[in-house]
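Write out the 3D structure for:
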Amino acid sequence: MKLNQGFIAELKHEAASTRKMLEHVPMDKGDFKPHEKSMTLARLAVHVAELPGWVGFTMGSDELDLAKMDYKPATPTTNAELVAVLDKNIETAIAALENCTDEDFGKMWSLRRGENVVFSMPKAAVVRSFAMSHLYHHRGQLSVYLRMLDAYVPGMYGPSKNDSEMMQAAAN
């Protein structure tokens, strides 16, 4: 299997789990932070929805210079809008990956802040760590925020406690 096909399959699989999580974000509690140093719930949820877009950006460029970046995060106000941000970024990522060769994944990519190079890695490693593993890390954080807010926490790799309770209630 070519690298791009493996990444596409993983993105599609994980998108379904991420979508379930974003559908349950209590949008009226967007200012919630579990700690002073934490992101707000709204910022974290948007970050999770936007991270798949980094796949396309990585494969379509050789670097990201944070000093030159003019980033403005999405500002969804509903769960449907939040999921639409995710879906758009998944679509962009898959489209970028579809035409990539294994050779493309071996090309170097750098993250820098002006003259300071934060890291340089082959694009395959950047897609894996900077985009995908980064997404899973923040999605895990989001599940903790949801639990702290007593919101529904859907299972990612099997049923969650909330899923199990719903299944048990339906069986009774």
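The chain has a mean pLDDT of 95.
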